[in-house]
Amino acid sequence: MTTTKFQLEPLTCPSCIKKIETKLGKMDGVEESKVMFNSSKVKATYNEENVSKEQIKETIEKLGYPVIN
């Protein structure tokens, strides 16, 4: 398992958390995801054999949340 963090542009509403966590939770290989509203960070624990960091980043961005780094 690998854990990574993404910094997002500032989140504007608490419902953003549920949207991101739900989508990442449905991805094959993502074990856990946590979104921190106040810091606009996403922490994801995943299996590199099933999903890549880039795929997780792309999924977040497709939901409309730009990843800064």
UniProtKB/TrEMBL annotation:
CDD domains: HMA. Coiled coil: none annotated. GO terms for molecular function: metal ion binding. SUPFAM superfamilies: HMA, heavy metal-associated domain. Keywords: Metal-binding. It comes from the Bacteria. The keyword Metal-binding applies. Signal peptide: none annotated. This is Heavy metal-binding protein.
